[in-house]
Design goal:
alpha+beta; three-stranded antiparallel beta sheet; globular; four-stranded antiparallel beta sheet; Phosphatase 2c, domain 1
Amino acid sequence: PRHKGMGCTAELMAFCKDGFVLGHVGDSRTYLLRNAELEQLTEDHSVVQDQVSRGLISAAEARNHPLRNVILRAVGVKEKIDVDLFRGKALSGDLFLLCSDGLTDMVDDTLIREALSLNGAIHEKADKLIELAKSAGGHDNITVVLSEVV
């Protein structure tokens, strides 16, 4: 088949009672904004993140590294998918961001936190993130999903 070897990333989230379950494959990301603090919940499955984790390059070097988009895990490449699973508490006011590298390659975490902290409706925050990525020269697909715990 002509699409053999092609794959995609995945972020999956389900809420239950007072918690959440998160599944992660690839270099898309899930963030949590809680009490004005942004936390990246997932770690990229990429060549450069592996190098950062092993201390071979810095996070700053990884941002513009020529191999930054080479991923080590994806959906659809192998028969078995290796998924990172996380469980955590979900508190009222928590804001979860699931996004593709089309956002995170163009917008740093400081700007993401600022956009998520703006007053306004949740769809306005999503629109702001997409606008930031496009205005920074975003050329990849930009996927943004926001979920707020009430």
